[in-house]
Amino acid sequence: MDEKNALDAFAALSQATRLNVFRLLIKAGEAGMSAGDISDTLGVRQNTMSTNLGVLARSGLIRSEREGRSIRYFADMEGMRGLLAFLMEDCCGGRPELCQPVINELACAC
């Protein structure tokens, strides 16, 4: 990930609804969620949710798949990995043991 993409991702996450959507989709995992379910869970109007989902998709943090007449959304784990790798690219000044606690905290136990 380059600086421009990282800035786009951070801009997308700098709004409360979008941050909550992204965290919700991370929790949903491989099952993802429909736009309606996301709206209902977060108590956000569907037209507002549609705009926020578009911003997150353009930032590379979520992806979508059409299921008949509805769309299911998922956290884009490659986008998230890219953002985290960008942040930690020059981590620890050659002392990887300093980064290990952060890596351990990020590791999914699932």
Find the count of extended strands (DSSP E, 2+ residues): 3
Gap between N and C termini: 25 Å
> Which CATH C-level class is it?
Mainly Alpha
Count helical runs.
6
Keywords: DNA-binding, Transcription, Transcription regulation
Pfam families: HTH_20 (PF12840)
InterPro entries: ArsR-like_HTH (IPR011991), HTH_ArsR_DNA-bd_dom (IPR001845), Metal_resp_trans_reg (IPR051011), WH-like_DNA-bd_sf (IPR036388), WH_DNA-bd_sf (IPR036390)
Domain HTH arsR-type: 1-95
Summarize the structure.
This protein has helices at residues 3-13, 16-28, 35-42, 46-58, 77-88, 100-106; strands at 33-34, 62-67, 70-75. By secondary structure, it is α+β, with helices and mostly antiparallel strands.
